[in-house]
Request: fold
Amino acid sequence: MNSSSDKIFCSVVIPVMNEEENIPHLHKAITEAMQAWGRPYEIVIVDDGSTDRTFSLLEEIARHDAHLRVVKFRRNFGQSAAMGAGFQFACGEVVVTMDGDLQNDPNDIPMVVEELQKGYDVVSGWRKNRKDKLVIRKVPSKIANRLIRKTTQVSLHDTGCSLKAYRREVVDKISLYGELHRFIPALARVEGARIGEVVVNHHERKFGQSKYNLTRTFRVIMDLTTLNLLLKYLTKPLHFFGALTLLFNLLGIGTLLYSAFNVAQNRLATEELNVLMSLGFLLIAAGINFLLFGLIANMVVKTGKKRDERLHEIVAFTV
Amino acid sequence: MSVETKISSAKAGSTYLDENEISGNGRAVTMPAISVIVSTFNNGGDVQAMYRALRQGLENYGQSFELIFVDDASLDNTYTQLLDIAKRDRQVKLIRMRTSFGETSALDAGLRHALGQRLVFVTARVRINMQSLPRLLKKLDEGFDLVVGWRTPRQDSGVNRVVSRMFNWLMQKQGNLQLHDINSSVIATYRSVLENITFYGNLNVFIPVLAARQGYKVTEEQIEQLSGTFRKSVHVSEYIQRILDIITVIFLTKYSKKPLHFLGFFGIIFTFAGLVMNVYLFTYRILGFGGIAGRPLLLLGAMLLVIGLQMISIGLIGEMIIYTHAREIKEYNIETVVGE
Reply:
């Protein structure tokens, strides 16, 4: 397996958690699809701390199938971490991710990869006919997608679709943390990636439980806010902090001038003057603090990894 | 080897002494299975008894071992007594810190010189019956990754016990660890576990929590505590240090990779509260109900607003630090890989 690893074309990365009923079907479906396609492939399944028989089933299958590699986490670390680990172990030129619940169709993999080869760095699936419950999944998803489109300038219909194909270079560049796996296209966009989209099949869940719940929505919103602020101000942190500095200093000076003016006209009682003066000083102090934050942020960003080797330059000769 | 060690440990602020140096004969380095690291500080009274008990217990257990004593610059005769022991016993290594660097540093210095794959940490301060130490090793044999000594029956002073109980309760909430005595400072574990969790500062008492959060199997085992004289008073600063440590651990384990989630949440609450107060006051003023300059609420609102925005700012700076400096940090711990 190791000897042929340099020739692997397509790595299929699948994070799973408690999917014992789906595992045999999943492996069979992917194997059939990949064999029919005929390109050298590998399957990397990351077991994200399953508590059922998922891992022992995978271990058993891996004994007979050299294409399968299984990475087992010590506990549940989340889907982003699982995908990150999958990326680390995947060695294909193209990395395809999908869900372990068989809602994505492995037969779509060749199509998605062919779309990628038209000159994209990331191709995302679009579940146009989504087979999920309307209220708890489709509606939040629609709202989230609109938000993501608005904030990240990546115009995908279905950011949440797990079936995605990446060029090797993209996978190597992107670090996944928090729950940022949903926003890989957005992160890739910052690195200069070209992003495509293709309509894929979507099936109903046959076995097992969906791991989705509504509290996730809150975390997604926090992640989105984080990402938005981060991407917007990463290259120019002083814009963010400068605006706050300016605002608070102006407010503070304004307050002080206002009280000075009113004192001159004898219109303020002593205790009123005290409150107003304190307010003015507080606001100015805050303003200065924001300026200092801005300087620290600038230092942080400037000393960070050099980002001059952006993606498109490398991609140019590998297409 | 001994020269090299000497130089490196001199840099680290400790003198390293093993049987090589004293007798001068070249000894083939054998890899012991177990390294027991004991930190001492002014324990002149019990060092001898401790050593004998420890040795006897380990001999009964039956695997090869080494004892590493790290003396944190004791002011009494602890070091000279240990030196005597180290001269007589080939399985004993002795490290002396130049000045008192604290227990964590002492244990860390011991770890650097430990050769075994299984490690037992103990501090002489807790006065446990060293003979029962191999019980922890037996738990490791059962398949656990880390075993914490549970001092029972507890012989400490009342204050110490109350503080200890509060501490355990907090830690249980944090790490989902159902242990009775997390901060006993008696730990048996594997080298590989420690390599996957970083500990620094005063954080050695958090090793079980950090390990559990990485998915290692953590358990406890009862261990007798000797009666006798104990430190009566613990300095207030030590408790404050503890509380700061707890905050650090909460932050490190839960939010180190997403500071804006934590700070942003509180930041938004503060900012919102401040905004509500000031909007109320300004409406009050604009509608002509009276002046607001004398209202302390104005100051409170402004302050909350400022604090909230500062929290969000610091969260954002944290995110920037992680994005630009810590991208290679792994957020997961792999148990096995099949098919490689």
Remarks:
- Residues 1-5, 307-319 of chain A have pLDDT under 50 and may be disordered.
